[in-house]
From TrEMBL:
Keywords: Signal
Species this chain originates from: Pedobacter cryotolerans
Protein's name in the database: Nuclear transport factor 2 family protein
Keyword DNA repair among UniProt keywords: no
Pfam families: Lumazine_bd_2 (PF12893)
Signal peptide stretch: 1-20
Length: 153
């Protein structure tokens, strides 16, 4: 019976340790994603670059004027240029982390968002991130989003 209790305690302690590690990894993943949006709000291109891996893909699911769904690809260089180009209003993407999955060096994150130009609402949608953890920490390797102006509660 004594061995059973020792075994049970060992399992509980190892599970607690794994949970704490997962929470730390989740916070590190969130930190990388928040770096992206903090960089957007402050037009800080250096901050933006730190959030992304050198090899990355950025895409948007959008609709054409005719209402046809399409996937558009944008380069990180063009994205950074658009954020770094002086503009009078702040670009403010307000996110809510809804799902974070981590397995070893891969993280998948889903966030709802509302995008504002200054204080004016522009659109909403969902971001889907894939991150890789390398020697320099978690970096975004893939980002795809949806954009809409309705059903943005």
């Amino acid at each position: 019976m004594k061995q059973f209790y020792l075994y049970f305690i060992a399992i509980i302690l190892s599970t607690t340790n794994v949970s704490a590690q997962n929470l730390n990894e989740e916070e590190a993943v969130k930190s990388t994603i928040n770096l992206l949006f903090d960089g957007m709000r402050s037009s800080d291109t250096t901050m933006l670059k730190k959030a992304f891996a050198a090899n990355n893909t950025m895409q948007t699911i959008a609709k054409t004027k005719e209402g046809k769904a399409v996937v558009r690809t944008e380069s990180l260089a063009n994205f950074i240029k658009s954020i770094g180009t002086p503009h009078s209003e702040k670009y403010d993407e307000r996110i809510v982390f809804t799902k974070i999955l981590i397995d070893a060096n891969l993280a998948s994150v889903w966030t709802d968002y509302k995008f504002y130009v200054g204080e004016k609402f522009s659109h909403c949608g969902v971001n889907s991130f894939q991150l890789f953890k390398g020697d320099d920490g978690w970096k975004i390797i893939y980002l795809i989003d949806t954009r809409r102006k309705d059903n943005c509660n």
